[in-house]
Amino acid sequence: MSTELLAPLDLAFWHLESTEHPMHLGALAFFESDGEGDSDSVAKLLAERAAAIPRLGMRVRPVWLPVGGAAWSTAKDFDVRRHVRQIRLPDGDFAAHATEIAGELMEQPLERGLPPWEMYVLTAPGSRAFAVLVKLHHALADGMRAVAIGAGIFDQIAGARAAGARRERSVPPRSWLPGPHQVVGFARDRLEEVGRAVGIGASVMRASRFDLWGASALASGSSGTRRLGTAVLGLDDVLKIRRVAGGTANDVLLAVVAGGLRRWMLERGEPLPAADPRALVPVSRRRPGSAAASGNRLSAYLLGLPVSEADAWTRLASVRRAMDRNKAEGPGRGAGAVAVLADHLPPLAHRFGAPIAGSVARMLFDVLVTSVPLPRSTLSLGGSPLRAIYPMAPLARGQSLAVALSTYGGQVHVGLVADAEAVPDLDRLAGSMTHELATLLRAATG
């Protein structure tokens, strides 16, 4: 594959980017080696494995047709060493220093003339730990595809790939001329899609707030700065709560976010918002086994986070009921499915409409809360086991916080990305989430 048009949602993410609002995903992974972290050998290994992933050698270029479109094309001058870099951290608390520098690195947009990704190897003198920060443009990958791409750097996946590439199944030749039944089916599908798009658009308009700008703690003018906060939640605790409350583990985690936000707002001395803040909860539209397929495949649910409710168990029940309603309606309908509209817009509309779309996101939701799935197996890099991995999501325009969660090694790792000037107390929010989980656990075990 040398050239491939960007899918509509990928194109939207590409044009949504600005200097203050870079549109890359990230992950900060911590490893523990037998001896002192050797950044040179880790960087060399990362470069070798990244170079073996074809998608990471492609860049975005404009095309004449369709007008306003863009395509992935193989970068002929691709040099993986420009994308894998090393940073030596000072002595002291390695995790704290790594988290701080990761936040600063997340501020910087990826260079658009190059394949849109970077990796940083973070080491410190005398430390057996080392960390790897991965940045992938959202046009390159949604959460599931980012995992599929990023997993290629780990020993287990890289080893399986080196053992032998999977054979490509031959596809029988097929005429490009559609038959009459295909024409009828195509027309019917297009009409159904138009109907869905109109319904989603109407739901978005009904859900948009034209006179209410939500919780002040979550709204801000952008400073272009970033801060990263982390929290670790016990998966066993989450599952104990779920068994008592019913619903899903994700319901519990969303309730933890809601309760954490409430605690954080009250500790800041801020009044609780007149209306509960709304979370955009992304939902993958990928079919099982299709994570390697190109193009973002996302929809989302809108969820009111019940920060005005004082009781933690009642908050969880409220979240569960709201998510049950969302699931009953389905991820392809309702205002939360706004990402689906991208599939129905021409490329030129994405190019010129992105600034407007970015500005109105604040009218629809207040905070992004996303769960990123990871392989269940134990992972390592160069023989060094992975100890923790914190996902990071981009900030929408006019918003100060994004929350991402991943489960690995019996723990839920929470990555909080915030505007550094709007949310200087991000560690306090991380602590509020751990306290909220403990409160729910006490209520569940009584």
UniProtKB/TrEMBL annotation:
Q: In which pathway does it act?
A: Lipid metabolism; Glycerolipid metabolism; triacylglycerol biosynthesis
Has the keyword Transport been applied to this entry? no
Record's InterPro entries?
Acyl_transf_WS/DGAT (IPR014292), O-acyltransferase_WSD1-like (IPR045034), O-acyltransferase_WSD1_C (IPR009721), O-acyltransferase_WSD1_N (IPR004255)
**Looking at its record, which EC class is this enzyme?**
transferase
Q: Which reaction does it catalyse?
A: an acyl-CoA + a 1,2-diacyl-sn-glycerol = a triacyl-sn-glycerol + CoA
Any idea where the O-acyltransferase WSD1 C-terminal domain is?
Answer: 295-440
Q: Name one Pfam family in it.
A: WS_DGAT_cat
Keywords, alphabetical: Acyltransferase, Glycerol metabolism, Lipid biosynthesis, Lipid metabolism, Transferase
Query: Is this entry keyworded Cell cycle?
Result: no
Enzyme Commission number = 2.3.1.20
Domain O-acyltransferase WSD1-like N-terminal: from-to ranges: 6-252
Span of the signal peptide: none
By sequence similarity, the record places it as follows: Belongs to the long-chain O-acyltransferase family.
What is the protein name stated in its UniProt record?
Diacylglycerol O-acyltransferase
| Species of provenance | Streptomyces flavidovirens
Query: Lineage of the native species?
Result: Bacteria, Bacillati, Actinomycetota, Actinomycetes, Kitasatosporales
